[in-house]
Amino acid sequence: MTADPLSQALDPWGFESPFGASASGERTTAAGQPAVVGAPWGEAPWVEAPWAEAAWTEAPWTGEAESAGGVAFPSGAVLARASGATGRDEEHWDPNGAGLPLLDTRPALRTTRLSPNFTVGELASSGGRASDVARISPELVRVLQAIRDRAGKAVRITSGYRSWARNKALYQGYGKKPTLSRHCSGQAADITVPGLSGAQIAKLAIDAAGPELAIGIGTTFAHVDVRGAWALWSYGGVAASTVRAVRAYRDARRRGAPPAPVPPGPVPPGPVPPPVPRVPGQTAGGRLEVARVPLLAAHRGAGPDLVLRWNGMQNPEAIDVVVHLHGYSPPAASMRLPRDKEPISGLDFSDPAGREPGGRTRPTLALLPGGSRRRARSGPTGSRSRR
Ligand SMILES: [Zn+2]
């Protein structure tokens, strides 16, 4: 994936695109309530809850405890109530009547932690913009923390509280009637987890927070909300088979199947090799004869096996390597590289035509190996040459 994964699913505001694909977009009923796409057991009594102990009853949380006029969160932080226009169709209308109060989320409070890994600013923001007053469900914070704990890595909230006014503006931008978004009620968050698809996040959320979560599956994100009933839907780009797989997973978990292992995230980069130490200063040009090179032991000639030459260079980023492969040599077994080949090999880096008296200036290492002793037929007369 080369593009920012969010850009595939989110509009420029950072919202998921609600109308990315009408065939699988978030469905709403005539009353505007998100429809439960696949919850055949929605009416069934909850009898098997293998994770209930861990996920739901371990925390003593019983709702949004009102504390001194404010709302207490899992971290112990208390946010004070705030006033705002909450009437029908006004800026902070709660279209679901969930009953959560508007809370003070002014900038000075944004870094306050509501749980070990989530701040006021994250929950009070949608599409990267924070609101000075917001509805925030303590239960949602607890669910998000449970997801974070199970994931074992960062969970990013791309949309938390979204005012009714912003929600309307968002949908008007699409030329659509706004949905009665749970984000406006303070009960929803859109989340991403590095390296995980929306469906993987959905399954992880079911394992972390239980089967009564409402989940919207995007390609690279998941919407989770705590409306209090199971619901499942998808956004654009998610195959129907993916939704069925998540539903089947939830079904299996309800019947007692063990949770799937947490998918690994991106492989962290390996240890960075130590930098190659640089020798400071200038390297003058030079020449070296190597008498014996095992690789060239079978080659013809009286030695040395290899002649190296290089020109002057200073801490080069790269060097050119030139290998002179020479052919027939009349002296055969008595051939000596420095005498018979080097003068005509170009190892002096000079321009044979004399046009560049300074010679080659790019950092260069030249190799002149002794020729092979193998005989090869060449030419129509079958004359022999030694290489
Ligand atoms: Zn959402």
Provide structural commentary.
This protein is an alpha+beta fold. The protein has eight helices and 22 strands. Strand 19, helix 8 and strand 20 (364-369) form a beta-alpha-beta unit. The site of zinc ion has 6 residues, from strand 11.
Summarize the structure.
The protein is α+β, with helices and mostly antiparallel strands. The strands form eight sheets. Strands 10-11-13-12-14 form a five-stranded mixed β-sheet. Strands 16-17-20-19 form a four-stranded mixed β-sheet.
Looking at this protein, list some descriptive labels:
387 residues; alpha+beta; five-stranded mixed beta sheet; four-stranded mixed beta sheet; disordered N terminus; disordered C terminus; binds zinc ion
